[in-house]
Prior knowledge:
There is one protein chain. By secondary structure, the protein is an all-alpha fold. The chain is 50% helix and 0% strand. It has 10 helices and no strands. The longest helix is centred in the first third of the chain and has 21 residues, at 2-22. It is globular and about 45 Å long. The two termini are 28 Å apart. The relative contact order is 0.18.
Amino acid sequence: MKQLLASLVTLLAISNLAVAQTTAEVDIEAGRAKAQPCAACHGSTGLSPSGMFPHLAGQQASYLVKQMKDIRDGRREVAQMAGQLDDFSAQDIRNVAAFYADQPPPLGQADPDETLVERGRTLFRAGDLDERIPACSACHTPTGAGIGSAAYPAVAGQHPEYTIATLQAFAEGSRDNDPNGIMRDIAAKLSEEDMQALANYLLGLH
């Protein structure tokens, strides 16, 4: 747990530069135009019609900037995104991130199964001390909105399928663009049932 806390402190320091770059002058309308090809998978306003692809509406701009740069520059592999960002300049990325961040966030309805909801709520709000799992809300806030100054993503209202796939990818190490391996460390401690419970809880969180 101490190692995780140390990683959080380090990550906050590292993120300051990324946030400064994100908050540079942006053009939301230019971002809207540049994002038009993205609509096929992510929807015209960032609300994805398929659980295979994430909602981007209302996402933290700093997080989107990091992910787009990582994908463009080969630090994060996403097969469906191959070549999609090759011609994006740093300004294009900031503009598109600002456009999606400016859109109303997704709203979902969780499965009301009491056991599922309670386990998801516990993990998100308090973590699991026995399993050395920290509370998700520490980085993603109690409302799941994320923290822009640290480039921590919004997770509320996200497709459960995408949330589970992301946690599995971190747990397996096939996604490794998380600074200091913080998400890989946490996800590796989650059971399949924990991932399902969290994904369900996050869907209805708003």
